[in-house]
Amino acid sequence: MDVYSEPFIDIDEWRDAPVRHRYVHGGFRGTELLFSFYFPPKERYEGRFFQPLQAISGSENSAPMAMNLANGVGFAVASGGYLVESNQGARNMFGGSSEANVAVAEYSRVVAREMYGEHRPYGYVYGGSGGAFKTLGCVENHPGVWDGAIPFVHGTPVSIPNFFTVQAHAMRILGPKFPQIVDALDPGGGDMYAGLNEEEREALKEITSFGFPPRAWFNFQRIAFGYTGVFTTLVDRIVDGDPTYFDDFWSKPGYLGAKPPASLANARIQHPTMITALVMPDEARAMKLPMSMPASQTNSGVVFPAALKVGSLPNANLQGASIIPTSGDAKGHVFYVAGVVRDMVMIGFGAGHFEAVAKLKPGDEIRLDNSIYLATQTYHRHQIPAPEYYAWNQYKDAAGKPLYPQRPLLPGAEVQSGGATQSGKFNGKMIVLAAMMDEAAYPWSADWYRARVKAALGDKIDERYRLYYIDNTTHTTQNVGRNDPRPVATTRVISYQGALQQALRDLAAWVEKGAPPPESTAYKIVDGQVVVPASAGERKGLQPVVSLRANGQARADVKVGQSVEFTGAVEMPPNTGNLVKAEWDFEGAGEYSIVTPLTGVRADIRTTFAFTAPGTYFPALRVSAQRQGDAATAYAQVLNLGRVRVVVS
Questions:
Q1: Whole-angstrom Cα distance, residue 416 to residue 510?
Q2: Are 208 and 528 spatial neighbours (Cβ–Cβ below 8 Å)?
Q3: pLDDT, tens digit, for every residue of 344-400?
Q4: β strands within 228-315, DSSP E
Q5: Does residue 18 have a cis peptide bond before it, meaning omega lies within 30 degrees of 0?
Q6: Does the bond joining 161 to the residue before it have cis omega, within 30 degrees of 0?
Q7: How far apart are the first and last CA of the chain?
Q8: Other CB atoms within 10 A of residue 31 CB
Q9: Spatial distance between the Cα atoms of 59 and 306, rounded to a whole number of angstroms
Q10: Which end of the chain is more exposed for a tag (fewer CB within 10 A), N or C?
Q11: For the chain, how are helix, strand and coil distributed in percent, rounded to 5?
Q12: Pick from 488, 492, 502, 421: which is nearest to 456 by CA?
């Protein structure tokens, strides 16, 4: 019997915000599956639905949030469709299934037929990061349900934990050197390896060859808390799948810990202390503390602390250390340090310890111990997967044999969340968006999956698949300016949200009208890095290409009050629409205050600016394009930017 056989509706009403729509909420009896449907008025409906899949399950009410424009009601209505969302079958962040997504999609069609008349609505499923794996699981395993899919910023079956272990290794060794590395990578900079010792150079070369995009290091502080913090919630996978690794790491030849370099030996912490107070999520938010991903999720109803106050902290870097209770009700469980703020230890945890974290109490004795975390930082060296994962070639000798002792591959690596196998065999049509500065799902991941699609579809790949690399954007900047309002973010990176919206519209036109979308981005892989052509005509894809110069160069050295001439050259790829706007931020304040309207597919922009104070500035030129040339619409504005360095003395 189908577990999702008895749908019910408990809310059915018309709403005026954010746009006029009919809101339908309900679920399936006997299950945890809940859904929300957002139907436009009949005159705005064109026979399709959009179904976003979040990386984290547990909520069926995220779409109306202002930060989720690409997933939002307004975009769906403006694009002639209704929006479908669900908690994916679970009320906690670790659950959910593609079968639940199928049930919600199909029941939405029932309600749509009742509202609009007999027809079969076209369906488009999409999601980013973990939601991309879920999207792939849907279209790989359930033919006939969805007509098209957009998995964006997706990884590979072996991304976790390896992308995070190599990142944690680099963070530990390079931490103090990141400012100079970032400066070298900025326009008018130099060699990012300059000034590094041998260990530091090797660490930077290792992660770069592994595919981490060096330009993303500008965000090293947030990466340290955010993604290294997320990694701590994944450590349980290594502990459970390969428990003997950690003793071997610290004792057997071939592992870094057997004869640790001074930097590793000095980093090791084994510090006993006691919990003095719990900091709950609401209190943490009130103090504006940065919370790790698990601590910010409360949909399950389990109330657990976001941070711990402890009796003493070691004078050392606790990032990723284990929190090991040695007394109290949580004894026998392991939690992780996601970060430290003043005297508070921000807490992370894996699914296996999800409910036990609520058992922590003041007075419990704990040990802060980073032995496991340090050992995981080179785990990827001992987990060489199939040859198609070319990032691991650096760990093989000339004969192709491993340079390090090998562990059995972690179980379940070939099947990701949502049942995705990433076989390259999928139903319908697909567009993939990848971020060229992706700090979490390294850009070569999309190339790896494209190779599988090519193997499955052969010469017909362009009939059903597109891959667009989006430049100057990171894994989390679909909402830049909202989830990261710092000037350093808004002048370095752009949101890929407009490109995602345009891709969704292109996908619908491709499926429903047979109108092919723009060609895939042209690129090549060089030592783990994705490299694209400089010109829009050669690069193709969706984005305008921006080239910016100050006094004709990437760097200008001037005096206070001396005018600098800025020249920008902007070009659209073939068949992608028109330029609509150029914006300038000269002083890096995060405010694009000077706006120039644009039209057509190519523009040369010139202006001058004089700086009134000495310093080093990184002026930015941000450009917007829109398929119909509509500068006023909030949707499908595809962005890119160019930057230069100006040194004022």
A1: 28
A2: yes
A3: 988 876 656 667 888 999 999 999 999 999 999 999 999 999 999 999 999 999 999
A4: 270-279, 307-310
A5: yes
A6: yes
A7: 76
A8: 15
A9: 20
A10: N
A11: 30, 25, 45
A12: 421
pLDDT reading at 130 higher than 50 = yes
CA–CA separation, 229 and 167 (whole Å): 11
- Is 300 within 8 Å of 351 (Cβ atoms)? no
Residue 19 token pair = 């746009």
Please name the residue that has the structure tokens 């990171």.
Answer: 474
Helix or strand run (H / E) with residue 431: strand 429-435
From the CB of residue 201, how many other CB atoms can be counted at a distance below 10 Å? 16
| Residue 479 DSSP code | G
Residue pair 530/447 in contact by the 8 Å Cβ criterion: yes
- pTM exceeds cut of 0.85: yes
- Which secondary-structure segment (H or E) carries 616? strand 615-617
- Two structure tokens written together for 93: 């962040």
Look up tokens 């017909």; give the residue.
460
| SS3 category, 287 | coil
Q: In this structure, are residues 610 and 559 in contact, taking their beta carbons and an 8 Å threshold?
A: no
b/e map of 601-625 (b: 16 or more CB within 10 Å)? Answer: bebebebebebeeeeebbbbbbbbb
Q: In angstroms, rounded to a whole number, what is the distance separating the alpha carbons of residues 334 and 347?
A: 11
Residue 536 three-state SS: helix
Provide the Cα torsion 599, 600, 604, 609; round to 10°. 20
